[in-house]
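DM from R.C. (forwarded with permission)

"hey, sorry to bug you on a friday — could you get me a structure for this? deadline for the figure draft is monday and I only need the backbone to look sensible"
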Amino acid sequence: RSGQGRDVKLMKADMGHLPIENGSIDLISVMTGTFSHLQRGLHEGVLEECARVLAPGNFLIISDWNLACEKQNFLGLYTEEEQEQLRENHLGYPHLLEALQTLDFTPKIAYLHSQKKMYAVLSTRN
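My reply, with the result:
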């Protein structure tokens, strides 16, 4: 968070328990279906952890599958059993927006893309 010359550091960590200081992150990106791989009931804890480590005024981006799309074929990479598990895990767009607002995020942009097969939400932490 030092302005010019920012370093990018990669780490492997549990999304629900990040080894990161409070308010020390400028941008969190959870991309392309990663959120649907979380077991049902863990989404809120991960969002709480994102809120904890993200500096006020900065951004959280979540991109996930739109499982309501009739043309959805992204899941074809998975077995039927895995697809069913992903559907059970899926938080869904309306519930994601509600959870973000509960945690004092302000959704700035929310849109469907890839022929409505995916959605993305850009939120600002208040």
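R.C.: lifesaver. Residues 100 and 106 are 7 Å apart (CA to CA).
me: no worries. The chain is about 25% helix and 30% strand.
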